[in-house]
Predict the structure.
Amino acid sequence: MKLNFSELSGTNTVKSKMVEIELPSAPLRYYRHGWQSWSLAAWTDLSQPLPIQKPYILHPYQTDAVYSLENDPHGSWLGAVEFSDGKIIFLGALSTDTHVFLKGDRLEGRSEAGEAEWFCAHGEEDQIFGEYAALLRNRFGSTSKSTSPRVWCSWYGFYSYINEKNLQQTIDMLGDLPFDVIQIDDGWQKDIGDWEPNEKFPSGMAATAEKIKATGRTAGLWLAPLLISNSSKLFADHKDWVVKDDKGQYVTTGFNVWGHDIYTLDVTHPDVVSWLVDLMNRVRRWGFDYIKMDFLYGGAMKGNRYLPTPREQAFRETLDKIRKALGDDAYLLACGVPILPALGVCDAIRVGPDVSHKWEDHLFETILQNFSTPSARNGIRTVSNRLWLKPLVHVDPDVEYFVEKENELEEEHKSQLRDLALICEFKATGDLPQWMTSSEREIIREFLTATPKIEKVGRYRYKIDGRTVDFSEAVKLVPPPKGFALLLRSFIGWAGNFKTIFNLFLALDNAEKKRRIGKHHLN
Ligand code: 9PG
């Protein structure tokens, strides 16, 4: 279906497998909306096209791999262009399994799943994104929870080295700091797929949850229930539950810290669904009422499944069953999740990549043009571009930092992370209480109890209780490399695709994490 620019007055929705909007003149910028939590969302300059991010080996877990080699500007479900008068033309789907491209002077929406419904508009950015959010809310629903809890999360202090002893010490030392949730992240499980406590949690998960609850807080747990490691018992027992590609190979969900090949469960297989429901019941029985459900994109990757349901729709249907099994009284944070299919099903969505105690990662951001790897700036950029989702779901910007120890962020950058969290109304940290000075504890207490008045005054500018904050610098994309850096991009991008080289890189990263935690916390 072809739409004329002049038809875009008022609210337009059309039903079609494909829509095309002819643009009246050349736009300046394109709003690219990445597929899942960690994928880039940003206004990109059309005079300087975004190079394909490297290394390719990471595409499955940072982008929608079906589209990651596309040269034209594109994104999942929605896209927009901005003209010199500041106005935008917007195209956004009200259906899952859709993608938007800028092809020359046309904005093009395509569906992978037959007819889709599309919203098109021309005018002021904030108003249009607001209308789109309202339409999505009608179509997909929104969370029933009024506020988000204040979370202490184990990942950013202990990484996978969380254990019963350092957790207990943390619980004790957090004292009366007003956190509502203490959340155990990656590191407690036997394997990816074997969601039972490992040897670092000898008392078991029910006893662990009880220790948290004894302080009057909610116990939180991290899980990646749709992933399956080839080293797991689950894989040995149920190879037929795993998604394969057209060549009959298991679909890989990317490389990661776990050091094994990681595949994904077939969310349309009835036995997988019952296994997931049992798992959710077990986690609730242990006593966890806050669930951080991670790496969910696996459930919506391209591949052959038991039923031919379109991939995002299939994922949404199963996520809904997972949610119902958890019960409405549990708080569900979805992470690494395709955004649209999760709306109305979970309470919060992580809307950016991981932050870190470093402002930038030069190798990844500048050389490889990869904006999904952990860094404070990458987090701020994508989150700032996804704040329009706030009327629909709690938006999780990842954690904030307060302590001086083992932290390379400048005060100004720590403040930006905190200000963004105030705007999101979602507060969390992974700072170890073992590292907090008494004045830092007071700053944390003040932050956790603050409820400032927030006003949006520009695309990336806000007033927080009258004080202006501006994320315009942080959201800027690092220009593509030139000269020697370009050569380096080609070489490192290529070399990084070899498993051994990539694993070497991971090992170095891990050694640095261990050093940061300190020996006394490791056992
Ligand atoms: C546990 C972690 C934490 C964290 C999650 C997720 O693409 N990447 O480079 C990438 C890096 C880290 C990452 C995901 C992707 O972390 O977001 O909060 O739970 O898993 O393993």
